[in-house]
C-alpha cells in the first residue's frame, strides 16, 4: 500500500518535509504502478499521442515549417453545442488532477498544504507566478520565432473558436485547466511520488522536464526543447528554497501565459502574427 506516514509540521518559512519513502519492494511497486496509471490517464497519454504525431509530421511530404497545429478548436458549428463540448472537455480533463491529489492524500492529512495548493500565501504565490510568467513568456516567444525560422516548429494557431459571448471565458478556463493539469501532475504529484521512491532531485527535475517537453512534441522540435527548459525551471523552483514545494505559483504562471496566448492572440496585429509564423 502507499506510504501513509504523515509529514512533519512545517513552519511558514520552510517547505513541508516529504513523507517517508516507500520502504518495501511491494510499496515501491505499488507507487510506481500508481504513477504510471496517473500519467496514462493524463499527460503520459498526451505524450504518446504527441510522439506518434511528430513521427507522422516528420515523415509527411510537407515540411515541418509548412504544417500547423490548432489549439482550442471549435467542436460544433452550433454555438450552444460547441460551448457544451468545450466545458465538458475542460471538466473531464481535470479529473486526473483530482485523482492525483486524492492519491497523495494517502500519505496523510494536509495534502493541499504539502504541495502548496492552498490559500496560505495568496500574495506571495501570485507575485512569484507573475514573475515566472514574465521570465518564461518573452524568451518563449523569441524561441518560437527562432524555431519557425529554423523550420523545426509548426505554425501554431492559439485559438480557432468563433466569436461568441462565451469565447473569452472559455479560453480563460482552458488556460486554467492547462495550468492545473500540467503543474499539479507534472510537477507536484510527480515530484512527491518519485521522492517517495527515493529519487534524487536532479532525476526528478529531468524527468518532469522531459515529460513536459514530450507532450508538446506535436508542435515540433522547437516547442519540445522550449518546454523542456520551462520544465527544468518550474521543477527546480518547486523544489527550491524559494518555491518551498508550493505548486500554486506555477499554476498562476502557466495560467497567465496561456491566457495571454489564447485571449491575446486576437489582439496581436496580423502582420506581427505573420512575421512569427502564427496563422
From TrEMBL:
This is CAAX prenyl protease 2/Lysostaphin resistance protein A-like domain-containing protein. The keyword Cell membrane does not apply. The lineage of its organism: Bacteria, Bacillati, Actinomycetota, Actinomycetes, Micrococcales. Pfam families: Rce1-like (PF02517). The chain crosses the membrane at residues 35-56, 83-105, 126-146, 224-240, 247-268. InterPro entries: Rce1/LyrA-like_dom. It comes from the Bacteria. Residues 1-11 have a biased composition (Low complexity). Residues 1-27 are annotated as: Disordered. It comes from Isoptericola halotolerans. Residues 165-259 form the CAAX prenyl protease 2/Lysostaphin resistance protein A-like domain. Keywords: Membrane, Transmembrane, Transmembrane helix. The keyword Cytoplasm does not apply.
Amino acid at each position: 500500500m502507499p506510504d501513509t506516514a504523515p509529514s512533519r509540521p512545517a513552519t511558514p518559512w520552510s517547505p513541508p518535509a516529504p513523507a517517508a519513502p516507500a520502504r518495501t519492494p511491494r510499496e515501491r511497486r505499488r507507487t510506481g504502478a500508481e504513477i504510471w496509471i496517473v500519467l496514462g490517464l493524463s499527460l503520459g497519454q498526451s505524450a504518446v499521442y504527441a510522439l506518434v504525431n511528430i513521427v507522422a509530421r516528420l515523415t509527411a511530404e510537407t515540411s515541418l515549417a509548412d504544417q500547423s497545429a490548432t489549439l482550442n478548436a471549435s467542436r460544433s458549428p452550433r454555438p450552444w453545442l460547441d460551448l457544451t463540448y468545450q466545458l465538458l472537455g475542460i471538466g473531464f480533463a481535470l479529473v486526473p488532477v483530482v485523482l492525483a491529489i486524492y492519491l497523495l492524500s494517502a500519505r496523510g492529512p494536509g495534502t493541499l498544504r504539502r504541495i502548496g495548493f492552498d490559500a496560505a500565501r495568496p500574495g506571495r504565490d501570485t507575485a512569484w507566478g507573475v514573475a515566472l510568467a514574465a521570465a518564461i513568456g518573452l524568451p518563449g516567444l523569441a524561441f518560437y520565432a527562432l524555431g519557425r525560422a529554423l523550420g523545426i516548429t509548426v505554425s501554431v494557431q492559439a485559438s480557432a473558436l468563433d466569436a461568441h459571448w462565451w469565447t473569452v471565458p472559455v479560453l480563460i478556463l482552458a488556460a486554467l485547466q492547462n495550468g492545473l493539469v500540467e503543474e499539479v501532475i507534472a510537477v507536484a504529484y510527480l515530484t512527491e511520488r518519485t521522492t517517495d521512491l527515493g529519487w534524487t532531485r536532479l532525476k526528478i527535475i529531468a524527468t518532469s522536464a522531459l515529460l513536459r517537453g514530450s507532450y508538446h512534441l506535436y508542435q515540433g522540435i522547437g516547442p519540445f526543447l522550449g518546454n523542456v527548459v520551462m520544465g527544468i525551471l518550474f521543477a527546480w523552483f518547486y523544489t527550491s528554497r524559494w518555491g518551498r514545494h508550493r505548486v500554486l505559483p506555477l499554476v498562476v504562471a502557466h495560467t497567465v501565459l496561456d491566457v495571454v496566448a489564447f485571449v491575446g492572440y486576437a489582439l496581436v496585429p496580423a502582420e506581427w502574427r505573420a512575421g512569427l509564423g502564427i496563422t
